[in-house]
Amino acid sequence: MRKYFILSIFLALISGELCAETQASERYASSSVLASGKWVKIQIDETGLYQLTYDQLQEYGFNDPDHVAVFGYGGAMLPEDFSTEYLDDLPQVPTLRTGNKLIFYAQGVISWTISGTLFTRTRNPYSMYGYYFLTELEEEPISPESIASSATTPALTVTTFHDRVLHEIEKVSPGRMGRNFYGEDFLYTTVQNFTFDILGITESPVTAQVRFLAKSTSSTSTVSLQINGGNTTSSSISPILDSDGQTYKCGVETTIQTTFTRNADDADVLKISFSGSGATAAYLDYILLNMERELRLYDGQVAFRHRSAATQRLQYEIDVTGASAPYVWDVTVPYAPQEIVADLSEGKLTFVPQETALREYVAFDASATFPSPTLVGSVSNQNLHGLSRADLVILTPSLFATEARR
Question: Is the pLDDT of residue 91 over 80?
Answer without folding.
Answer: yes
